[in-house]
Amino acid sequence: MARLAVNVDHVATLRQARELVAYPDPIAAAIIAELAGADGIVVHLREDRRHIQERDVRLLRDIVKTKLILEMASTPEMIGVALDIQPDLVTLVPEKRKELTTEGGLDLIVNENSVAETVDTLQSSGIPVSIFIDPDLDQIKLAHQINTTMIEIHTGTFCDAKTPLLKKQAFEKIVDSVKFASRLKIGINAGHGLCYNTIKKFKGLTEIDEFSIGHSIISRAVLVGMEKAVKEMLALIKEL
Ligand code: PXP
Fold this sequence. Notes:
single chain, TIM Barrel, 10 helices, globular
């Protein structure tokens, strides 16, 4: 069964919407998610600190019992934070200040050398690295050459596709990428935009090791509670 890593960034988004309050706390959300059965907790410490703060990552490092996954840009500042905090996995993502959320995978054709250096620095200090990339065979080949422990396949284009044809085409790219990465024996995570409906499409794609899901779970948690929201997603993943 694939694992579920729950991204709690958007608990912090709600907190930061009122700068003077200290709630809701992403730390509490992470504890409940783990108690509900989540296999890992994900946070993205962005350059602009729009949601998760360094205090959150440090506290999570202490309390997360499963696996702490730090999403970050490949920059000297963030490499310093990762080396200091020692998460269980770093996921390298592209970052633009104006984007609402991560808009696509890291382009390894453009950034191969700098990303390779970051992967090397982190992995030689004992932190495994995953690279968030689009479902594209050339990107996967480069990730393999860079020697990254894992890739995370960007599922956002599939999830956001507006027509059945576009959805079908986007999903075919995911399937081809997963099969290719599996032949290369790289660990395979998948995420972005996944919700309680789109996750069902992944039935039979058992090569995926872990799903990284945030917005849909936190949105549902606002209405039904964190424990129920996580358990409902876990039940769907179990069916895959
Ligand atoms: N994976 C990566 C690399 C991401 O950047 C994000 C968003 O922070 C997610 C997964 C989770 O996406 P969503 O919040 O849409 O589930």
